Amino acid sequence: ARHGGSLREVLARPGLLAVYAVMLLAVLAHNVLYTYIAPFVALSGSQGTLDRLLLLFGVSSVVSIAVTGALIDRWMRALIALGMALFLLAAVAMALWPASQAVLVGAVVVWGLGFGGAATLIQTAVARRSGQQQDLGQSLVVVGWNLAIAGGGVVGGVMLKSGGAALLPWALVGLLMVTLWVAVPAKKAWA
Description:
By secondary structure, the protein is an all-alpha fold. The chain has helices at about 5-10, 15-35, 35-40, 50-95, 100-115, 120-130, 135-165, 170-185. The protein is globular.
């Protein structure tokens, strides 16, 4: 008997391709801005508070993880949709008002609340969907997550160089709209 199955067998499992797509898009979006947060924060003159902003992001992410952990068994699909919608709301706010310190603080909190639980949701969805191919299913999460981190650095760097830091949240808006478009109708992915 073969252990682990093939890549094709894993990707053919109902809903799993949607989970991986959501992961790639959301993590890419996150890293486009998170990697280059310092030049973006400077647009509002907030560079002196970057450490506090990152702490605020971390605290709101922990709150998101706690809420996700408490509700994931019954509300996984609602949690992924709400999380990505909150993340999109934060991106839109930062895109429209990049020079506002107040918007930046609020958006950082909403961003953390929206994105914080994503890893838990994605890993749980993959665990539920990958069946007997758990090892391969979870290893694809690691590979995809790292590719999206690297991709975020590349995409963000190109955007920063070509259009400046104010362009970064607009990339998130586009990526997160596609993320929601993939995540929301994919009922089997989040069952």
